Amino acid sequence: MKLTFYYVRHGETLFNRIRRMQGMCDSPLTDKGIAQAEDTASALQKVCFDKCFCSASERAYDTAEILCRFHSGLVLVPLKELKEFDFGELDGKHIDEFMDQIQPNRMKDDWSHVGGENVERFRIRAEKAFEKIIASCRDGDTVLLVSHGSYFMHLIKTLIEYDQQDYIRRMNERKRPFVPNASVSVFTWEDGVFELVREPVTADEFRALEHRHVDFYFVRHGETKFNTERRLQGLCDSPLTEKGIAQAEAAAEALKDVPFVKAYCSSLERTRDTAQIILRYHDITTKPDKRLREVFFGSYEAMEFENIWDELMERHIHTRWKDLGGEDREDVSGRILSFFRETADSADDGDTILLVSHGDLYLCILETLFNKNKTDVYAEAEKAGVNPMPNAGIFRFSYDDGRFTITEMMKGPGE
């Protein structure tokens, strides 16, 4: 009988951030910790898990719930035997303030005299955990485990045949955490023997190990009523003009032989209508996603911008609208990263994907994924004598093993 285990450490917690010992005690995931768990969940969404077990501590349970979002029907089973190593009376103590007490116990790896565990007690507890887990599995199952950092380090010291001291030495040389928050490691169990297959890696490192090439075609919507009236058009909407419909039809002709397997668009009507026209030659439907919506301009939505051009350009260049109730660059970058992370992670190698969205979001994608700021994009377009983001313009880029690369900057469908 053989089982494969994907072991994920919980995301960053309050105690991780403020440097307090955290064993059997608990503290909540931070916003960063939630984001780490979401990132790892996306990276693992193509793995077919048969079972899921987690530590009974809330920080691990909450991480596991996030990881299970892409795996419908996967039942999450908490086990107290998967809780973190017990540091006894030093649990919850500030690491820097109590280092004189923590370090001797850490060097001996024996916390029993302060009411905690030693290696042998841990081994007995871990064996019980895996006895329960293995008894519930079938040959060939892939199992998701969500637990803790020190728990993993003690697994490779006790149950898993691995040189823990060599691992510690190599991680110290790289100045790398032994088990990063939300990291993934892989080990197997076969006929009573555990073997480590993959040392802990971050979500991005995991992606780099999984070969996948995906082509993206990003199309801006056709001209709208507000475009002709020179009004700011973010989350507000206006219909396509006759010219806008014709532009979308030109994009459809330009893309009719592209083998799209998936299509996504902004949830706004102008992009849904553009996408519907483009897909007339393809037997797929488009999936609207709010993360592809235009930048939100707050109370300046639908404003005629001629009379305040200088202010608007300064706000536009820096994506600074929060003081008006809209979005700032960080808000937009967050949803861009979330969307492309999940979309690339869910794709199959060789997929070609259509995206229909907006002009300013296109510029923000260039900033977020390719480190090209808006000022430079405008300067390059002016030098070339082209519109940097024409209505129904087409932008091509690709994804390879965790990295995005520009294939062709946006240009009109007839160019």
Observed structural traits:
18% strand; six-stranded mixed β-sheet; 38% helix; 2 domains; Rossmann fold; 15 helices; 415 residues; elongated
Could you characterize what this model shows?
The structure is a single chain. The protein is an alpha/beta fold and 415 residues long. It has two domains: 208 residues, Rossmann fold (3-Layer(aba) Sandwich); 199 residues, Phosphoglycerate mutase-like (Rossmann fold), CATH 3.40.50.1240. It has 15 helices and twelve strands. The strands form two sheets. A six-stranded mixed β-sheet has the order 3-2-4-1-5-6, sandwiched between helices. Strands 9-8-10-7-11-12 form a six-stranded mixed β-sheet. Strand 2, helix 3 and strand 3 form a beta-alpha-beta unit. Helix 10 crosses helix 11 and helix 13 crosses helix 14. The termini are far apart. The model has no long low-confidence stretch (mean pLDDT 96).
CATH superfamily of the largest domain: Phosphoglycerate mutase-like
β-strand amount = 15-25%
Q: Count all strands and give the number.
A: 12
- For this structure, what is the CATH class of the largest domain? Alpha Beta
How would you classify the helix and strand content by structural class?
Answer: alpha/beta
Shape: elongated
Q: Report the order of strands and helices.
A: EHHEHEHHEHHEEHEHHEHEHHEHHEE
Number of spatially distinct domains: 2
